[in-house]
Amino acid sequence: MAALSDKLADAYQNARPRYPIDWFTKLAARTGQHKSAWDVGTGNGQAAIGVSFFHLVPKLAEYFEKVTATDINEAQLKRAVKHERISYHHTPTTMSEDQMVALVGGDNSVDLIVAAQAVHYFDLAPFYNVAKRVLRKEGGLIAVFVYNDIIISPEVDSIMKRLVDSTFPFRTPVMNLAFDGYKTLPFPFESIGMGSEGKPIMLDIPHKLSLKGFIGFLRSWQPAMKAKERGVELVTEDLISKFEDAWGDDDDVKDIFYKAHMIVGKLSASDIERHRKRFDTNCVVTTLKDHNNSAVIASVTAAAFAGVAAYCAYSARKNS
């Protein structure tokens, strides 16, 4: 996502919906452990807050004790909601794969990866490489979701449709991934029955929206910003006047909903096998015997990440 100005970052934060807590409840119920989650492309931290707030739900009190939230956009991170379970990190595109893996927690360390309204902006090949490395091999999940439409009222929706149609000349292939509801998004993970590559599940996000919030949504909307970069103002004062007339009372806060699309997956057996072979290559196991004949030392010769070290130690014990 292009870096937003401070003013537009404020508009973005005020206009976007919060993701329903039941989404994360369902995801947590399918993960094997609840120690670590990674919200990648966190923006202002909406999904990070979602995955960290499990301590408010009695039966989920121990879920996702640590949430690592990352983004390339510093303006957004400055507005992220602080929480004791969340650590926010600026991750410029110059970071290497190994640096990203280490930052998130190491190989085989993350129980849930969430990319909310974000993955279509990523360089997918390196992101998926990192995801497959850090995702816990047993019980780890990755979830990507996007909302691509807003339903307000027949009067407002008809004007919005004309605005959406006017963005066609300015859309990039990245934007079209979102407009298509991730139906064309590559997603090299095994389905768990919550969508799959080419077949995302459809969901609604209920939200309350004021006219001011709606105008903020339009002005921070990526297609409109892209058009403006090319010298075309799509969100004109005339258009805003039409929306105001269709809205009715300026002070009216409407119950609206966003149309969302989600895909959830896990590592395939072949991915896990490739990961195991990579770990085996990186481990040089030396068995030493102490006076109890039980000490084992595993040295990691490639990357000294916690996940690799843990695997090597396990392998050493298993083979001793």
Task: Report on the architecture of this protein.
This protein has 13 helices and 10 strands. The protein has helices at residues 6-15, 21-30, 46-52, 74-78, 97-104, 124-134, 154-166, 173-179, 211-219, 222-229, 237-247, 269-282, 306-319; strands at residues 36-40, 66-71, 86-90, 112-116, 141-151, 190-191, 201-209, 254-266, 283-287, 296-300. It starts with 5 loop residues before the first helix and ends with a helix. Strands 1, 2, 3, 4, 5, 6, 7 and 8 form an 8-stranded mixed β-sheet that branches. A two-stranded antiparallel sheet has the order 9-10. Helix 1 (6-15) crosses helix 9 (211-219) and helix 5 packs across helix 6 (124-134). It has 2 domains: 6-154 and 171-212 and 256-267, Vaccinia Virus protein VP39 (Rossmann fold), CATH 3.40.50.150; 275-319, no CATH class. It is of the alpha/beta class. This is S-adenosyl-L-methionine-dependent methyltransferases superfamily protein.
Features:
320 residues, elongated, S-adenosyl-L-methionine-dependent methyltransferases superfamily protein, single chain, 40% helix, 2 domains, Rossmann fold, S-adenosylmethionine-dependent methyltransferase activity, disordered C terminus, two-stranded antiparallel ribbon, 8-stranded mixed sheet, alpha/beta
